[in-house]
Write a structure and sequence with these properties.
Blueprint: H1 2-50, E1 54-58, E2 64-68, E3 74-76, H2 80-85, E4 92-93, E5 111-112, H3 119-125, E6 129-133, H4 134-139, H5 141-147, E7 153-156, H6 162-174, H7 177-202, E8 207-213, E9 216-220, H8 227-233, H9 240-248, E10 254-257, H10 262-265, E11 269-273, H11 278-288, H12 291-294, H13 297-300, E12 304-307, H14 317-332
Parallel strand pairs: 3-4, 3-6, 4-5, 6-7, 8-11, 11-12
Antiparallel strand pairs: 1-2, 8-9, 9-10
Length: 337
């Protein structure tokens, strides 16, 4: 009888112990579930922080555009050199980006988007930002409207200072203002030395830059084909008719003139652009035989300087900076500043 009671008590104690363990186990599982429940919102809260932030900016067409604050995949219809100067390598570029001799090595690996821009190529590149000149919307309207459905497009006008306008706008767009400020500071010091060299060598003598093509003669002003480098960079004196044209259009590219007008636009020094092959070369060979050409003061005094067409092609800031130093040495008869 005693043994039965003892066995009964033992069974009851064992059952009670098992019950306690079950309760504790259930509480532990509940605690784990509660802990997991508190972690899930935190994990969810972190997810938006991993997404790129967006800002709204106004482009040169006056459009408000939502763009990434720190774009990682940029397609540059133009301005690839400016992006490289900011430490950003575009994933794709228009054809002009591959014509700048000073940045060709840095462009290795950048995809060509074609001319006009190829929609399939741009879609393949999956850009988070497209940068294009305003002229693209005029000449490639249909393509640009479709590209705008792939990624935000920021338009920049050529009709402004390439350094203090275009470059600084790009830097603000991609969040690289300190890099732009450092670049500009170094450029301004080089420009100061180059101007001093040219002023010491030329005094008040004038300089003009022109290009000979088959059936066309153009005087360059204050933008591409070394115009900005000569006028804004070196601040070389311009003949009065050239200065008047620049006053009418401060960032104009060029003005076409007749051959008879050349003596009026030609400076004491001439910077000459002629392609080394084809019809352009032949056209210049014919001009060289004319008395009008032979009587130009720059020709008589041996002050005609041939410029490499490929090297002086761009109006980008890298071309401006490098050709400015080279031209200062050319005109100053000394070393590159």
């Amino acid at each position: 009888m005693v043994q039965l009671v003892r066995r009964s008590n033992t069974a009851m104690i064992t059952a009670a112990a098992l019950l306690v363990l079950l309760v504790l186990s259930a509480c532990g599982a509940g605690a784990q579930q509660e802990t997991a429940g508190t972690q899930t919102p935190d994990h969810t809260a972190e997810a938006p922080q991993a997404q790129p932030t967006v800002k709204t900016v106004k482009d040169d067409l006056g459009r408000e555009v939502s763009v990434p604050s720190a774009p990682a995949r940029i397609v540059a219809g133009e301005f690839a050199s400016e992006l490289l100067a900011l430490g950003l390598k575009p994933v794709g570029s228009g054809e002009n980006g591959f014509k700048i001799v000073y940045t060709l090595k840095e462009m290795e690996g950048v995809e060509r988007i074609g001319d006009p821009p190829n929609l399939e190529k741009i879609l393949e590149l999956q850009p988070d930002l497209v940068i294009a000149p305003t002229v693209f919307l005029e000449i490639y309207q249909e393509q640009m409207e479709q590209i705008g459905k792939i990624a935000p497009v920021y338009y920049i006008s050529f009709d402004q200072d390439p350094i203090y306008g275009i470059f600084t706008k790009l830097a603000a767009l991609v969040g690289k203002q300190p890099e732009a400020e450092a670049w500009i500071k170094a450029y301004e010091e080089e420009a100061r030395l180059a101007r001093e060299q040219v002023k010491a060598a030329l005094g008040d003598e004038t300089v003009s830059i022109f290009r000979v093509e088959k059936g066309r003669l153009r005087i360059y002003l204050n933008r591409n084909f070394a115009g900005y480098m000569l006028r804004s960079g070196l601040q070389a004196n311009a003949p009065r008719p050239v200065a008047d044209e620049i006053n009418k259009n401060p960032f104009g590219s060029a003005v076409q003139i007749s051959l008879e007008k050349l003596p009026e636009y030609a400076g004491d020094h001439l910077l000459l652009i002629v392609r080394d092959e084809g019809d352009d070369r032949q056209a210049f060979a014919e001009i060289e035989q004319l008395e009008l050409w032979k009587n130009l003061p720059a020709v008589k005094n041996g002050k005609v300087h041939r410029l490499g067409t490929d090297k002086y092609y761009g109006s980008d800031i890298v071309t401006i900076r490098e050709t400015m130093k080279e031209t200062a040495a050319m005109l100053g008869g000394g070393k590159t500043p």
